[in-house]
Amino acid sequence: LVLSGAVHDRLFRFGSDGSIEALRLPQAREVYLGLGGETALASTGRGGSFELWSAEGGGFRLRSLPGAPYGLQPSSLLRLAINDGLLAWSTWRGPLQMWDLTGEEPALAREIEGSPLSCTPSPDARWLAVNGRSGLYAYSTSSDARRELLARALDSETLAFSPDAGALVAHAKNLHARVWFTAAELTDWTESTLGLPADTAPSVTFSPSGQWMTTWSLTGLRLWRLAAPEGGRAFEPVAHLPDASSGHSYFASGAWLVTTSASGPVVAWELDTVAGTARPTELGTDGTLARATIAPDGTVVTLDREGGIRLVRRSAESWNLPGVELARLDDRVDVLRFLDGGERLLCAGDRVRVFTTDLDALVERSRDHLEKQHAETITELARDW
């Protein structure tokens, strides 16, 4: 977890034993967290240098990063993409450099002439999607292979790989949404359309398995399922909420989904991958819920507009609405989400707190104000952040 503040940044790592390690980065101007959460790149104020931090053991390890290419300064960094195996960066002058992070120390894997508008690495670090000034390209990180996906640059785009790196979705202001299904070789990638019009504010979220996907746009929220029709793969539409124009999607394994929208209700979805169906349940229909998130076991935590945090679960028949109240907070909460496989709940706003207790035990014990009675269940990471 990265907390970016006005004075300095902090890097936190959550251990499987319940420990929390903190690293203060007083010289950092910006901190970029890798897609897998195990690598962070910090731009410092010391001569335009960078620090590459990796999670190791119970703490952090500073890995050497070769000198910034072509006089790279943090302020001139144009585009950067990072996951735990690949780092790509470029300036206005170019070129685009790919660094292999899988070894003991970073190594330059490939250099591409030109300066991209944006770039996105695949989670397995095998591919890099680049929105260049002359088109959209896919590059191999282990060879010189390149494929042109589109012959024009994308405007206000969303580029997203699925977590299993099996699909790449592109949606933009000047492009009807498209998806490319990856293969061992770039020449074997297949393309299909999603039937979504060009949009100024698209976003895409995948389930952990890559079998489900949500798209948010001006035409509403759509839920898609990966299918295997004759002759290939395709995402098929399953549900559409036209009034939910922007919001967030939280998947739990391949069976559960919660969607929150400023213009629509909070909805919990029960997903059936085999049948290709999704059963929705509105958790808040009167506008009282501000946020919601979901744990891998399907447990939903909601936050109402009065600061009440509630636990909602699905039984064989229905959801136990309105749920069991866990806490009532008296400060603003902007982020509510589960971390670390559902064992920790992050509440971030005026204060940044992590609830590190077993939720079942908490339900049995909590009948009063959690902040007063059960302070040992909360770790405060920051105040007035």
Describe the structure.
With 385 residues, this protein is mainly β. Helices cover 3% and strands 52% of the residues. It is built from two helices and 35 strands. The strands form nine sheets. Strands 4-5-6-7 form a four-stranded antiparallel sheet, with no helix packed on it. A four-stranded antiparallel sheet has the order 8-9-10-11, with no helix packed on it. It has a four-stranded antiparallel sheet with strand order 12-13-14-15, with no helix packed on it. The chain is globular. It starts with a strand and ends with a strand. The relative contact order is 0.07. Residues 364-375 have low confidence and may be disordered.
Quick overview:
With 385 residues, the chain is an all-beta fold.
Low-confidence parts:
364-375
Strand content: over 45%
Please describe the biggest sheet, giving its number of strands, its sense, and whether it closes into a barrel: 4 strands, antiparallel
- The strand order across the widest sheet is 4-5-6-7
Provide the structure class.
mainly beta
Strand tally:
35
Which word captures the global form? globular
User: How widely separated are the two ends?
Assistant: 14 Å
Q: What is the alpha-carbon Rg in Å?
A: 22 Å
Count of discrete alpha- or pi-helical segments spanning 4 or more residues? 2
In percent, how helical is the residue content? under 10%
